[in-house]
Amino acid sequence: MADPQRINRNQYSWSSIIFKLAEERFTGFTSISFGDKRERVKAYGMGRHHAPRGRSAGKYSVDPVKVVGWKSSVQALREALAKLSPDGKSYGDVEFQGLVQYVEADESEVTVELDRLVWASNTTSDEEAPDPLKEEFELDCMLIRRNGLYLFDGSGGQP
After folding, report:
1. Taking the chain (159 residues) in consecutive chunks of 10 residues, what is each chunk's mean pLDDT?
2. Which positions ≥6 away from 60 have C-beta within 8 Å?
3. Cβ proximity of 68 and 131 under 8 Å
4. Helices within 8-127 (DSSP H only)
5. Which contacts qualify for 85-94: CB closer than 8 Å, 24 or more apart?
6. Are the CB atoms for 93 and 85 separated by under 8 Å?
7. Structure pTM?
């Protein structure tokens, strides 16, 4: 099925993104990146052709979810997660869900589920400039679903 033609209509842009973490919508983030892959290995055997006989089923892995945002928005997320922890302070142990939606009136909605996130790292780099201060953090993600579809082999069940 080919993608539909769109002439003089809005396509997805930064303002089309809805970003939710731990059931809360956040608008103070300025960058998000994520990815997943299925690493497969080719299987070779003997023969003059020396071409692959097949490939492995593969190993599914998820890259860290990298987020950049205004210092106050990042702190608000930290505090929200810390409240969910047993001691009320440790935001690094709380597992939560992430949702990235791309919504535009002239486009089909795209929903990306970031499953079983935990906070993995913080990076702060402040410098003299007229810009407000930002922070970067990484989240560890177990799997990604795009509109309910996933890259891994789900025939034996989902993790």
Report:
1. 68 90 92 96 91 93 97 96 95 96 89 97 93 96 96 87
2. 36, 37, 38, 143, 151, 152, 153
3. no
4. 71-84
5. 91/119, 92/118, 92/119, 92/120, 93/118, 94/22, 94/118, 94/119
6. yes
7. 0.88
